[in-house]
Amino acid sequence: MGIVSDCRPMLPLSASHSVSRQAWLIAGILLIASNLRAPVTGVAPVLDMIRTSLDLTAAQAGLLTTLPLLAFAAGSPIAALAARRHGLERTLMAALLTLVAGLCLRSSGAVWALFAGTLLIGGAIAFGNVLLPSLLKRDFPGRIASLTSAYALTMGVASGLASMIAVPLALWSAGPGWPLALLAPIVIAIASALVWLPQLRTPAPVAAPAGPTQARPRPVWKSALAWQITLFLGLNSLVYYIVSSWLPSMLHDAGYPPGSTGSVHGMLQIASAVVGLPLLALVRRVRDQRWLAVGCTGLSIAALLGLLVAPSWAAAWAILYGCGGGASIILGLAFVSLRVGNAQQAAALSGMAQAVGYLLAAGGPTAIGAVHDLTGGWTVALLICLVFACAQAVFGLYAGRHRQLA
């Protein structure tokens, strides 16, 4: 009888423990994903308040978007090394704690703390960007597509909500309200760390994270097709971060009230996430994606033209640009897998596209802020974005061809 009572519960408890661990792991992945854009995109709606409060130039304010992008580019190899040494679970927890510290520092009210905290936030997000795909490959090899779609959608919705609540929070707070708006994402960051705690007790065996450190990039950097894919992604990122950073300021200058600018900015972020669901199904059905690439970029071009000539329809243009820019990001990432013959090439191409893309995007918001200061308006800035978007369409024609790297 003692043997029966000891043995019978073992299998159900073991199975229950496995299901429970998977449920907590998926919840943790989705919560971590919700931190990968919101702390950065939530800045734009209150950027004018920050500039006025701290007496910043437009170029200096642009650094609030540039610094995270530079951290994204620089943090990827560091994240890979840290995960190999300390494990994915502990490294992701360290990233979450760094994110919490960066959010506290950024919202303290001092100019130096604003930029130092922004840099910490960018580094923490870079770790999440690199390590979450590795986690999916290790623990959910049969569900990568569905979970990637889920965390991309979570990331976009969280960033949209952060944009929408930023201005109401800033206006609700007494005194300069922007620190409260910048601190708001700490709620999700703390919740993510708490949900992630169980993963530290029984960490799974560490897999080498996918990234540029794992591949031999030299042959890829010499490939014309690799450069076409990289520039398609890089130019899209450049324009996307310019628009995402300065759209609220453009709307403010066009006469929109502060609350509306945050809402429109949030619509852009959510549209960029939702569009991926139908696009992925379409990509699987066609072998040559040239016209998909041109079509996605065409949506962005039409939206930029709309902002230029009819800013009163800004909500429609924001949704249209979110669809075009978001679809181009997803399509470009699909090219990374479709245009290579093996996992090693995929890692090399992904590293190349990420490094060049973020470096291109990093200079965009600051440069466009300087252009605005020089010209006193957004016309020239939008024309520059149109030129970059047209160049992206050209590279899309090449990157979308049904061929692979040699």
From TrEMBL:
Pfam families: MFS_1. The keyword Transmembrane helix applies. Gene3D superfamilies: MFS general substrate transporter like domains. The chain crosses the membrane at residues 58-79, 91-108, 114-136, 148-172, 178-197, 224-243, 263-283, 290-309, 315-336, 348-371, 377-400. Keywords: Membrane, Transmembrane, Transmembrane helix. It comes from the Bacteria. This is CynX/NimT family MFS transporter. It comes from Pigmentiphaga daeguensis.
